[in-house]
From TrEMBL:
<dbReference type="GO" id="GO:0055037">
    <property type="term" value="C:recycling endosome"/>
</dbReference>
<dbReference type="InterPro" id="IPR017107">
    <property type="entry name" value="AP1_complex_gsu"/>
</dbReference>
<dbReference type="GO" id="GO:0031267">
    <property type="term" value="F:small GTPase binding"/>
</dbReference>
<keyword id="KW-0653">Protein transport</keyword>
<feature type="domain" description="GAE">
    <location>
        <begin position="705"/>
        <end position="820"/>
    </location>
</feature>
<dbReference type="GO" id="GO:0043323">
    <property type="term" value="P:positive regulation of natural killer cell degranulation"/>
</dbReference>
<dbReference type="GO" id="GO:0005829">
    <property type="term" value="C:cytosol"/>
</dbReference>
<dbReference type="GO" id="GO:0006886">
    <property type="term" value="P:intracellular protein transport"/>
</dbReference>
<dbReference type="GO" id="GO:0019894">
    <property type="term" value="F:kinesin binding"/>
</dbReference>
<dbReference type="Pfam" id="PF02883">
    <property type="entry name" value="Alpha_adaptinC2"/>
</dbReference>
<keyword id="KW-0472">Membrane</keyword>
<protein>
    <recommendedName>
        <fullName>AP-1 complex subunit gamma</fullName>
    </recommendedName>
</protein>
<dbReference type="GO" id="GO:0048471">
    <property type="term" value="C:perinuclear region of cytoplasm"/>
</dbReference>
<keyword id="KW-0333">Golgi apparatus</keyword>
<comment type="similarity">
    <text>Belongs to the adaptor complexes large subunit family.</text>
</comment>
<dbReference type="Pfam" id="PF01602">
    <property type="entry name" value="Adaptin_N"/>
</dbReference>
<dbReference type="GO" id="GO:0005905">
    <property type="term" value="C:clathrin-coated pit"/>
</dbReference>
Length: 825
């Protein structure tokens, strides 16, 4: 049989192939020749054939038939054969195939070989693909080589030990004696791998971490090595862009971060060296930036001095000026994580952060936007909103929804005046009205209603905003509502804040009729416009007949909602005309109920101020059950309490059926599961605890600290915590405040929390503070649950969580049975 072609010739031949089919044909032909050679047990060219097979494997072609040939090469006495055999084993074998166990004896023999290079091959292979069985069998040999004086073998043995610990953590203590002298080695390769080994041991075992902190005094040794690296002169062997062994420096900084976390003594010992690294490292090259970034992470993670933290944030501020996009992104992400703990230091770089909003890279824009909102407070609200509104004008569509939502929340929290608040919201609706959340319209309407002195100014601004432009539907809806409520102020020209405009009643009706017939108007917008026209029948005097005509026309509309409204309004004109003025009178001031307990300390980005409890008595008389009452039988049996609603919902009436899924498809009524028959709506009177003591005395005992909080749910980065308060006036009432936080790198949107309790309890679930759980634990959603427990029974609760994360809809159920006794006894 002729000698097979060399690897170099094979590579040259394959590269001449012009098509994929031609390349496949060459590979298949060569594979056939290699198989024939293997069958003939050709020892002369086995090494060459396996090398060619590995090249084909790297190109993506199957090479599994060469696995046993690799084992034969490993058993050979020639170093060249062993080298190709071990390389083939690392590429073609893994612990899922039983064939790899046949190597154990060969590796054991080679670990005890007289040639260091053969020992190195065996260590590399074991550290690459050794299974847990192999690691148990060969850990003793690895530990012996870790104590040898040969630096070439020690560095490879240290890395192999890392793999052994990952596969069999209980063997960790075997390597502990060998680690004592590793950091005294002069060889940088041994030092580097030793730090990797120590890092792995500290991360995997709290006991090892405590041992290295106290007994081994590891921190002073690492500080000494790092100081020598910084102060040493030029060393050609380890120099990278003028910095001595940056890879070792980065590894040491990571290990210092682990050792200093939550430990005062260790943190104190490394403060000085961290300051030296931060001030002495050259930043003109990317190598220096990598070391500085690791230094910043270490400073932020340990219990460092305040001056050192400011230095770290200033380094990140310099990163923001770097031309490299990756460095700017890393800086923004790091600042976003630290803004809650070192707010004032981050504020100093506000102008640089805002400049990043103009960056061309979308990922940098998003991080800059999130950080900008985190920096907003009462002192800089005007300047920051000006920049963010400018960003909203020019940003890509995928940013507009998040930016508009952030502006709404910031304006509600820090608005310096009601006029500024209204102007800001209107600017957002004008710019990005199609992207705002569903609650933007009712929230702005409530804000306008409560700003009595701004009614004339607001209705005039809104009238101007929608002249000839109906593209932003939320803006048109708010404008229609305001014109219907305050149309008389618009026509009378009573605006004092700006120059009044002269508008006639017919011109106002022309605008509303244009909204009704516009192709851009949605059904909801037309409903707003028709209701506004009807309201104007009590505010205008000379156009009542025109209003009657418009209303009667829509009595035959194909839109059922519009038709129903028009028919009812026609009845008001005819049969109930004496009641029309009373029914259509101006809306009273709307009160907004806070959802964070009696007195919430509002996080104000560097400021704290108490937010007083606002309470709104429930309407008197019988209350209809809401869709939340579909939570029946969540905890088994038929003794489940209905949930008392606190506010009307905008969801369709059938939405409550979704809650039936909490325990699967439960047939509660005996009817077929596909068409559940709604039960008769009972008359539910509000429990007395909702009204008790709102006027004369505090609602809650000041004993919150006495009731321990609990973690009700923690999974996939979402954490739900319960804190408790007890009512002063009614000891049977427990007020539970939930806090939802998100430790992942992306926001969780459309977050909904639902709860159910047995019927011996009564439960009231108030509105949440938001529907977005911010990423990186930069904020929380809060929601209040009130539970009436007259029989003082142990609390039980089942919760359902739904949200969107990373483009996927998530849903989960959980039971909470670990309520502290103080919360219910």
């Amino acid at each position: 049989m002729p000698a097979p072609i060399r690897l170099r010739e094979l590579i040259r031949t394959i590269r001449t192939a012009r098509t994929q089919a031609e390349e496949r044909e060459m590979i298949q032909k060569e594979c056939a020749a290699i198989r024939s050679s293997f069958r003939e047990e050709d020892n002369t060219y086995r090494c060459r054939n396996v090398a060619k097979l590995l090249y084909m494997h790297m190109l993506g072609y199957p090479a599994h038939f060469g696995q046993l040939e690799c084992l034969k090469l490993i058993a050979s006495q020639k170093f060249t054969d062993k080298r190709i055999g071990y390389l083939g084993a690392m590429l073609l074998l893994d612990e899922r195939q039983d064939v790899h166990l046949l190597m154990t004896n060969c590796i054991k023999n080679d670990l005890n070989h007289s040639t260091q290079f053969v020992q190195g091959l065996a260590l590399c292979t074991l550290g690459c693909m050794g299974s847990s069985e192999m690691c148990r069998d060969l850990a003793g040999e690895v530990e012996k080589l870790l104590k040898t004086s040969n630096s070439y073998l020690r560095k490879k043995a240290a890395l192999c030990a890392v793999h052994v610990i990952r596969k069999v953590p209980e063997l960790m203590e075997m390597f502990l004696p060998a680690t004592k002298n590793l950091l005294n080695e002069k060889n940088h390769g041994v030092l580097h791998t030793s730090v990797v080994l120590l890092t792995e041991m500290c991360e995997r075992s709290p006991d090892m971490l405590a041992h290295f902190r106290k007994n081994e005094k590891l921190v002073p040794q690492l500080v000494r090595i790092l100081k020598n690296l910084i102060m040493s002169g030029y060393s050609p062997e380890h120099d990278v862009s003028g910095i001595s062994d940056p890879f070792l420096q980065v590894r040491i900084l990571r290990l210092l971060r682990i050792l200093g976390r939550n430990d005062d003594d260790s943190s104190e010992a490394m403060n000085d060296i961290l300051a030296q690294v931060a001030t002495n490292t050259e930043t003109s090259k990317n190598v220096g930036n990598a070391i500085l970034y690791e230094t910043v992470l270490t400073i932020m993670d340990i219990k460092s001095e305040s001056g050192l933290r400011v230095l770290a944030i200033n380094i990140l501020g310099r990163f923001l000026l770097n031309n490299d996009k990756n460095i700017r992104y890393v800086a923004l992400t790091s600042l976003l994580k630290t803004v809650q703990t070192d707010h004032n230091a981050v504020q100093r770089h506000r102008s640089t952060i805002v400049d990043c909003l103009k960056d061309l890279d979308v990922s940098i824009k998003r991080r800059a936007m999130e950080l900008s909102f985190a920096l907003v407070n009462g002192n800089n609200i005007r300047g920051m909103m000006k920049e963010l509104l400018y960003f909203l004008d020019s940003c890509e569509p995928e940013f507009k929804a998040d930016c508009a939502s952030g502006i709404f929340l910031a304006a509600e929290k820090y608005a310096p005046s009601k006029r500024w608040h209204i102007d800001t919201i209107m600017r957002v609706l004008t710019t990005a009205g199609s992207y705002v959340r569903d609650d933007a319209v009712p929230n702005l309407i409530q804000l306008i209603t409560n700003s009595v002195e701004m009614h004339a100014y607001t209705v005039q601004r809104l009238y101007k905003a929608i002249l000839g432009d109906y593209s932003q539907q939320p803006l048109v809806q708010v404008a229609a509502w305001c014109i219907g409520e305050y149309g008389d102020l618009l026509v009378s020209g009573q605006c004092e804040e700006e120059e009044p405009i002269q508008v006639t009643e017919d011109e106002v009706l022309d605008i509303l009729e244009s909204v009704l017939i516009s192709n851009m108007s949605t059904s909801v917008t037309r409903g707003y416009a028709l209701t506004a026209i009807m309201k104007l029948s009590t505010r205008f005097t000379s156009t009542v007949n025109r209003i009657k005509k418009v209303v009667s026309i829509y009595g035959s509309s194909i839109d059922v909602e519009l038709q129903q409204r028009a028919v009812e309004y026609n009845a008001l004109f005819k049969k109930y005309d004496h009641m029309r003025s009373a029914l259509l009178e101006r809306m009273p001031v709307m009160e907004k109920v806070t959802t964070n307990g009696p007195t919430e300390i509002v996080q104000t980005n560097g400021e704290t101020e108490p937010a007083p409890l606002e309470t709104k008595p429930p309407p008197s008389g019988p209350q209809p059950t809401s869709q939340a009452n579909d939570l029946l039988d969540l905890l088994g049996g038929n003794d489940i309490t209905p949930v008392i609603p606190t506010a009307p919902t905008s969801k369709p009436a059938s939405a409550g059926g979704e809650l039936l899924d909490l325990l699967g498809d439960i047939n509660l009524t005996g009817a077929p599961a596909t068409a559940p028959t709604p039960a008769p709506v009972p008359q539910i009177s509000q429990p007395s605890f909702l009204l008790d003591g709102l006027s004369s005395q505090p609602l809650f005992n000041d004993i919150t600290a006495g009731i321990p909080s609990i973690t009700a749910y923690s999974k996939n980065g979402l954490k739900i915590e319960f804190t408790f308060e007890r009512s002063n006036t009614n000891p049977s009432v427990t007020v539970i405040t939930i806090q939802a936080s998100n430790s992942t790198e992306l926001d969780m949107t459309d977050f909904v929390f639902q709860a159910a309790v047995p019927k011996t309890f009564q439960l009231q679930l108030l509105s949440p503070s938001s529907s977005i759980v911010p990423a990186f634990n930069t904020g929380t959603i809060t929601q209040v649950i009130k539970v009436l427990n007259p029989q003082k029974q142990q609390l039980r609760m089942r919760i359902k969580l739904t949200y969107n994360h990373k483009g996927s809809a998530m849903q989960d159920l959980a039971e909470v049975n670990n309520f502290p006794p103080q919360s219910w006894q």
